[in-house]
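Posting for a labmate who doesn't have an account.
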Amino acid sequence: MANRKLSLIAGAVAAIVASGASAQSINLTGVYRCIQMCRGDLPAYVTQNGPELNLLTEAGLPSRAWPDWYSPANRIWVDAFDQSAVYSPDGMLIQFDNGTIWQRDLPAAPPVRRRR
């Protein structure tokens, strides 16, 4: 009986961990510009490999992040800052718990050349 309960608990924990890691629905890789509560003027970078992320802030500080345990589909946990951040469904904004907001910096469209 005890082995059966232990097996059920282990299975439930494994299911939660697996679903949490795969619940992140968007790739956040890209260049971002800080638009609120900025600590520097540099572009911020996010590089995502599976559920794990590497961040380089607008102040040049590196950190690692991963899906937040409590809300993995729309939040990340940033280890060095000891805080989480919510990202928009389209991945265009990342808002940190301290009020800092990053906006994805899209490359400018090439100029349209007109024929004469």
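Reply:
Got it, the structure tokens are right above this. Residues 67 and 76 are 4 Å apart (CA to CA).
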